[in-house]
Amino acid sequence: MSRFIVLEGGEGVGKSTQAALLAGALGAVLTREPGGTSTGEDVRNLVLDRSHRHLHARAETLLMLAARAQHVEEVIRPALEEGRDVVCDRFSGSTLAYQGYGRGLELGELAGLDAWARAGCEPDMVVLLDLAVGAGRRRRPAGPRDRFEHEEDSFLERVRAGFLELARNDPARWRVVDASGSVEEVADAVAAAVGPGAR
After folding, report:
1. Residue 199 lies in a domain
2. How does pLDDT run across 16-42, given as a tens digit for each residue?
3. Which of 74, 76, 66 is nearest to 6 (CA)?
4. How many domains, the chain?
5. Could you read off the pLDDT of 100-126 as tens digits, one per residue?
6. Whole domain around residue 65: which residue ranges?
7. Which of 8, 48, 71, 103 makes an SS bond possible with 57, Cβ 3.0 to 4.6 Å?
8. Residue 113 lies in a domain
9. How far apart are CA 3 and CA 27, in angstroms?
10. Residue 137, CB half-sphere, CA atoms under 13 Å: how many?
11. 83 lies in a domain?
12. 149 with 136: CB under 8 angstroms?
């Protein structure tokens, strides 16, 4: 039976690296948000562009959810219906953590909008890669930072706390992995959390 597995976490925790390693081990479809489709990648470029620093939180949210709706219908749902596993770098948890806990939008309203956008598609498992904000910043390569990487530490601390609260509130679905180790150590912990086929 196919599984939909999402990796979540703040800036610099290593989600992209770990998602690629996990998808390779599982032979899964690897995708990301925002992105995953041509439409989603256009949205990604827009919302991460620092020239749009005054983008309102509601507008940011609606763009993210538009990309998610297209992503679900074009990539995620078809792959699952074909019996393939899907590993996604970010999904609904990021909306609640970033736009809810981080930006201060009402969580119940966000959850309702997100549920409408994903139309019944939800992950079987969410692996939260948890890392202190300062450690995540130190991991980022030199060079220009995107809109979210450029946020104040206080915003990123709210996002991290939000992710941890989401995990506490849904222990049946979420697993928290300490992301402070080496790539190999974290990959082993992710594989242990995911279970069969992940090694």
Report:
1. no
2. 999 999 999 999 999 999 999 999 999
3. 76
4. 1
5. 999 999 999 999 999 999 999 999 999
6. 4-194
7. 103
8. yes
9. 11
10. 12
11. yes
12. no
| pLDDT at 120 (0 to 100) | 96
Could you tell me what percentage of the chain is helix, strand and coil, using 3-state DSSP and rounding each to the nearest 5? 55, 10, 35
**pLDDT one-digit tens code per residue, 57-70:** 999 999 999 999 99
At 143, the pLDDT band (50, 70, 90 cuts) reads low
CA nearest to 93, candidates 44, 31, 144, 163: 163
CATH of the domain at 37: 3.40.50.300
CA distance 197 to 74: 26
Cα end-to-end span (Å), the chain: 18
Position 100 in a domain: yes
Please report the beta strands in 78-182, taking only residues with DSSP state E, as ranges in sequence order: 86-89, 125-130, 174-178
Task: For residue 85, give every residue at least 6 positions away whose Cβ sits within 8 Å of its Cβ, in sequence order, or none.
Answer: 2, 3, 4, 5, 23, 26, 27, 28, 29
